[in-house]
Amino acid sequence: MTTIDAASRLAQLIREQIGRSRDASALRGKAPARGEARAASSARQAGATDLPALAMQRVASIDPDDPQRARKAFRVFLETVLLAELGEEHVNDPAFYELVGKVQQQMEAHPTLAHAIERASEALLAAAPKR
Hints:
131 residues; mainly alpha; globular
């Protein structure tokens, strides 16, 4: 499998999880909470958050001695991608973080994607500003 194929598979898994999450929310009739709606409105008024810069700050803050450092760096990346796709108003939604965990588990279970995740994690950690 080429890198492009791995990236396509990764994107497909994310789209599938997003679709399942949206379907489940629709079945529950879940509307955003007033606080979430207010936060989304405030974010729109203040302009879009610089998610990539914030993600890099978060990656840089991961303890260099943490044995889970690479996994945590990829999770930050995944959260950033999904927030950009689904909307920043989900930042305070616990269900969002459950979705991120499920997506990451599925990706890590796929051998080719696991290798791509490892390379992406290394790139994230190398690009993060030094603290």
